[in-house]
């Protein structure tokens, strides 16, 4: 489908993309660009990329550049790549916040080089290519955030590639994307972290952790993710996450009021609504996190 794909950042997401691209024969050549030499060597050994190179070397003849770096450095990597991008090259990313990146990338790229924002809704609580999986995107939604300036041929090629990964491409305006992930991805991470910190701040922390069973572990699973990565995500999507926190606070207050007033109807209504909505979630995705 693509002759040469360059992945800048061969961590969990970049490495999983590389594994899927290589093993499913979606590209003739996949080249990794990675600051961590040990991680890049491992990526080559496990088959996540065919070879490694510097950004300048890798981009010669590349048809697609995937920015799979931490969100805080993606624009910097794109700026470094500019002199080496060829006319017709498609650039995409995998970051969980789109607004600033989409706007800056479109302003930065010259005519003939096409940017399409991307965000696979899948992940694991591990870092690096050691945790990468070929089937990470199987059954997951893969969001694309085209604008009026987006080249339709480039968008179609990316959709076909995403389908080849086993994921489901979905278009969303980048503003709508950032609002949505603030609620369904970024807020849950905050809640998981807050719950763990509530236990750790208790005088009986060790007893509580010893007693913690499936409910606590399932609810707090994503709190094990990389703190530095999440710092960048939360600060980059700050306004939308703060709005999500306020919406959550309203729902928590409803439950609290039901308990304070011994209002069984209010409590049951809130819990039943949550039960009904939760039961409608699709269960055909293997590894869904956020991203």
TrEMBL record:
Pfam families the UniProt entry points to: PDH_C, PDH_N
Q: Name one GO molecular function term.
A: prephenate dehydrogenase (NADP+) activity
The family database entries (Gene3D superfamilies) matched by this protein are listed as:
6-phosphogluconate dehydrogenase C-terminal like domain, NAD(P)-binding Rossmann-like Domain
Q: In which pathway does it act?
A: Amino-acid biosynthesis; L-tyrosine biosynthesis; (4-hydroxyphenyl)pyruvate from prephenate (NAD(+) route): step 1/1
Please report the stretch or stretches of sequence annotated as the Prephenate/arogenate dehydrogenase domain. Answer: 3-289
> Keywords, A to Z?
Amino-acid biosynthesis, Aromatic amino acid biosynthesis, NAD, Oxidoreductase, Tyrosine biosynthesis
- State which Enzyme Commission number(s) the record gives: 1.3.1.12
Cross-referenced InterPro entries:
6-PGluconate_DH-like_C_sf, NAD(P)-bd_dom_sf, PDH_C, PDH_N, Preph/Arog_dehydrog, Prephen_DH
- Any GO BP: tyrosine biosynthetic process
- Top-level EC class: oxidoreductase
Record keywords: Oxidoreductase included?
yes
Task: Enumerate the catalysed reactions.
Answer: prephenate + NAD(+) = 3-(4-hydroxyphenyl)pyruvate + CO2 + NADH
| Family indicated by similarity | Belongs to the prephenate/arogenate dehydrogenase family.
Protein name as it appears in the record: Prephenate dehydrogenase
Provenance organism: Desulforamulus aeronauticus DSM 10349
Its lineage reads:
Bacteria, Bacillati, Bacillota, Clostridia, Eubacteriales
